[in-house]
Specification:
single chain; 281 residues; Rossmann fold; Pantoate--beta-alanine Ligase, Chain: A,domain 2; 2 domains; three-stranded antiparallel sheet
Length: 281
């Protein structure tokens, strides 16, 4: 496994792979790797000749009061985990390498970035699309692997790659969960013991909502009310949003039908957690 820190060096390696007609699978990350990331890496390993991951805590997707400075950066552990999964290259660029002096360009996907997490985190998705657009251009992968936990992000990035004709297939992989159901996240380590114990209510509320829908409930307003009551009763979390939306367009749905995403964001202290479930009615 190689650790590469410059765009020029990475492109040189990729050219050699391309000249040998080797397929490249790519997993973009911000590091602090956990089992969710490793599941993406394993799928990429099974399906491609070469596996490349990026580790870059992207400042452009953090707001001024968000956790950029405190975001976990366990470099040695990340390298060991990647090596154990037989990653071929870790791209570990510096902020200066990604955004050199005079950098002025950004990518903005309109509309679907203004709702849900986008409404609470202005500019967040522009930061995501800009950095992932750059990474795709640098790595030139055949396939990029993303996790379903970040449901809105997957929709935004699929739209970006389609609209800009990036020659990459985007594969969305299932959310990986802890034994008690909490979606794996690099931010979980910032939860207190009490917060961690009660954060399981997020997935429980999603499961209970799905049960009600499968039993015949079709009112999104009633589903949202029941989820809100369950979370407020059983945790100290402060709800940012709970929404029932079309799984492809993120448009709010009053009467549930078609392919539906129930999604939520809840803050436990300063730690913001997201989760979702997707199904077809």
């Amino acid at each position: 496994m190689r650790i590469v820190k410059s765009v020029q060096s990475l492109r040189s390696s990729i050219k050699k792979y391309k000249d040998q007609n080797k397929t490249i699978g790519f997993v973009p990350t911000m590091g602090a790797l956990h089992e969710g990331h490793l599941a993406l890496i394993r799928k990429s390993r099974r399906e491609n000749d070469i596996v490349i991951i990026s580790v870059f805590v992207n400042p452009k997707q953090f707001g001024p009061k968000e956790d950029f400075n405190s975001y976990s950066r366990p470099e040695k552990k990340d390298i060991l985990l990647a090596k154990n999964e037989k990653v071929d290259i870790i791209f570990y660029p510096s902020e200066k390498e990604m955004y050199p002096t005079g950098f002025l360009t950004s990518i903005n996907v309109e509309g679907i970035t203004d709702v849900l997490c986008g409404a609470s985190r202005p500019g967040h998705f522009q930061g995501v699309t800009t950095v992932v657009g750059k990474l795709i251009n640098i790595v030139t992968p055949d396939v990029m692997y993303l996790g379903q936990k970040d449901a809105q992000q997957t929709i935004v990035l699929k739209r970006m790659t389609a609209d800009l004709n990036f020659p990459v297939t985007v594969k969305i992989c299932p959310t990986v969960r802890e034994a008690d159901g909490l979606a794996m996240s690099s931010r979980n380590r910032h939860l207190t013991a009490r917060q961690r114990e009660t954060a399981t209510v997020l997935y429980k509320s999603l499961k209970n909502a799905k049960k009600r829908i499968l039993a015949g409930e079709r009112s999104s307003a009633r589903i949202i009310r029941s989820m809100r009551a369950e979370i407020e009763k059983n945790s100290p979390g402060k709800i940012d949003y709970i929404a029932c939306v079309n799984a492809d367009s993120l448009t709010p749905i009053k009467q549930l039908k078609g392919k539906v995403t129930i999604t939520l964001a809840v803050k436990f202290g300063r730690t913001r957690l997201i989760d979702n479930t997707i199904f077809r009615i």
